[in-house]
Amino acid sequence: MQAILSAQPIFDPRKARDWVKSFEVTDQEVGAEPNSSPNPEAQVEESKITKKRKKIEKVSTPSSSLLDKMVSSGLLISYPNNKMRFSHAVFAGYLAGHALTTYNAEDAILNQPDWSGKYLTMRYFAAHGDASKLIQKLMEFSRLPMHRPLFAVARCLRDAPKNAPWRGKLFGTLAAVLQTEGIPLSLRGQAMAAFVYSNDPSASTLFRQLIATPAFDLVHLAVLGAGAMHDVKAVKVLELALQAPSLSVRRAACMALVAINTNEALEIVAQMLLSGDEDIRRAAGEAIANDTKEGHAMLKEGITINDILLRRAVVYGLGRIKEDWAIELLQKIQIEDEQWVVRNAATEVLDAKLVANSLAPQRLSIAHESPWLIEFAAKKGLGVSPGAPATDIFLLALKEDDPDARLAALPYLKYHPNDSVISQIYAAMYKDDPELREAAYLTLWEMGTSGVKLPDPSQYGLG
Questions:
Q1: Are strands 83-86 and 76-79 parallel, antiparallel or unpaired?
Q2: Which residues contact 200 (CB under 8 A, 6 or more apart)?
Q3: Which of 27, 169, 251, 389 would you label with 332, given CA atoms 20 to 30 Å apart?
Q4: pLDDT confidence tier of residue 226, bands split at 50, 70 and 90
Q5: d(CA 265, CA 255)
Q6: Can you tell me the distance from the alpha carbon of 50 to that of 30, in angstroms, rounded to the nearest whole number?
Q7: How far apart are CA 320 and CA 287, in angstroms?
C-alpha cells in the first residue's frame, strides 16, 4: 500500500524494509532441547536453566527478510542501484486495495494524479470494502467532455459486490450518458462498454429495451451491447433490427448475432447473406467472417454459388480473414470469377490489404507546405508565411461549410490549446455533422491525454 500511497511504482528496497518492518516474521531463540532423562532431579535442573535463558533473552531477529521472500516468490523484482517493483501492477493494486479496507487512506488515493496504481487500488478496494465515499466523490468530479472519473469508477463494477450501495446510482449516471442525444457517439459508446464490462444481468435487460427505441444512434449502441454480452434473449429483437432504415444499425445487428453465435442467430445472418439487399449482404458476409468455424465454412461454400451479389458479399467477408487460405482464394477469384463485379471486389479487397498501413496516423505537413491550407488561404485572400503560426487560418477553416477543410484543420489545432481554440473545437463538437462531432471529440481527447485541462462546455454556453 505504501508504494501506491507514495505513487512510487519503482521504489527503494531500503525504504520498503521500513514499510514492512512491523510485518516481519521472527524466529525466537529457544533453550536447549529438554533432556529425555526420566531422572526427576535432572528435570528440575533443566527447568532452572531454561528459565535463566528466557530471562536473558532480549532480542528476536528475522530469520529471512520479508522482502527477500517476496522477491524469491516472484511477487517483487529487484534491480541494481537499489530499485525494486512489483512484478505486475495488478499485484500492487490488489494488495493496496485490500489494505485500504483496514486503513483510512481514501482521500490520499483520491488526491493523487491519474495513474494505473490509483485506479487498480480503487477497483480492488471496491471489491473488498465499502467504496461509497470514494466513488461518490469521483462521480461529483466527472463532467463533460470526457467524463474520465465516471468511466474510471465504472471499472469497479465488475468485481464489486452486487449489493454495493453505490451501484444503482453509478448505473443510472452511465445510462444517462448513454441516452443523451447530441454528444459524441464515442463518449456514449464508453458508457455502453461500461455496462458490458460490468457483466451485470440488468445490462442485458437495458440493451433489449433500448433496441426498441426510435433513436438510431442509441439503437446502434444497444445492439452492439447486446452482442457483446452474448445475450441469447436478444436474438428476436436483433432480427427486427435488421429491418431498420439505418445501415449502421443493420450492420451492428449482423455483428451482434454472430457474436451471440447460437444456431438460430447464425441462421438469421446466413439468410441475410443469401436473400438480403446488396448492403445487408455485405454486412452479413463481413460479420460471418468473425466466426472461425461455421462462418468460414459458409464463406467457402458461398463463393461457389451462382449468385453475383452473394459472391460479392462473400469476397468482402474473406477480406476480413487474416489467413493465407483466404488470400489465396481471393487471388483466385480475382482472376477466375466469371463476373467483373466480383473480380473488381476481390481486387479492391486485396489492394486494401496492401495499403493497410496507410490507415496509421501520419506526420502532419508543415503549415506553409500543406497544399490544402495554401489553397484555402488563397481563396480567402490570405497568405501562409513560413515560421508564422497559422492558428487564425485553421480556426477560419473550422468554421467553414466545407467538411474537408473542417476535418483537415482539427489535427493542427490540437497543438494550440488556448481558450479560443478550445471554444471553437467545442462548437464543432456540438454541430449537427456526426463526422465532425466525432473528429472534434477525438481532438479534445488527445489534448486531454497530453495534460491540457479542458473546461466544461457550459463555460462556452454549450452542453
A1: antiparallel
A2: 157, 162, 167, 171
A3: 251
A4: very high
A5: 10
A6: 9
A7: 9
Query: Over the stretch 414-448, which tens digit does the pLDDT of each residue have?
Result: 999 999 999 999 999 999 999 999 999 999 999 99
> Phi, psi at residue 13, to the nearest 5°?
-60, -25
C-alpha cell read off for 112? 493523487
Q: Based on DSSP, count helices (H) and strands (E) in the chain, helices before strands.
A: 26, 5
pLDDT score at 397: 95
Q: φ, ψ for residue 130 (rounded to 5)? A: -90, 105
In the CATH hierarchy, which fold is given to the domain comprising 100-294?
Answer: Leucine-rich Repeat Variant (1.25.10)
Identify the three-state secondary structure at position 123: helix
Partners of residue 10 on adjacent β-strands: 85
Yes or no: say if 145 and 132 are a contact pair by the CB < 8 Å rule: no
Euclidean distance between the first and the last CA atom of the chain, given in angstroms as a whole number:
39
pLDDT higher than threshold 60 for residue 251: yes
By CB atoms closer than 10 A (0-12, 13-18, 19+), residue 10 is: exposed
Quickly count: other Cβ atoms within 10 Å of residue 9's Cβ: 14
Percent of the chain residues topping a pLDDT of 70? 90
Residue matched to cell numbers 471486389: 345
C-alpha span between 458 and 145 (Å, rounded)? 10
pLDDT value at 31 more than 60 = no
pLDDT digits (tens, 9 = 90+) for 293-312: 999 999 999 999 999 999 99
Which SS3 state, helix, strand or coil, does residue 11 take?
A: strand
Q: What is the mean pLDDT of residues 173-191?
A: 96
Amino acid at 52: K
pLDDT confidence bin for 58, thresholds 50/70/90: very low
User: What whole-number distance in Å separates Cα of residue 363 and Cα of residue 173?
Assistant: 38
List every span in the chain annotated with CATH 1.25.10.10.
100-294, 376-460
| Phi and psi, residue 144, nearest 5° | -65, 155
Could you tell me if 414 and 440 are in contact, meaning their C-beta atoms sit under 8 angstroms apart? no
Mean pLDDT of the chain: 90
**What CATH number belongs to 376-460?**
1.25.10.10
Concatenate the DSSP letters of all residues of 217-243 into one string: HHHHHHHHHHHHTT-GGGHHHHHHHTT
pLDDT of amino acid 50: 52
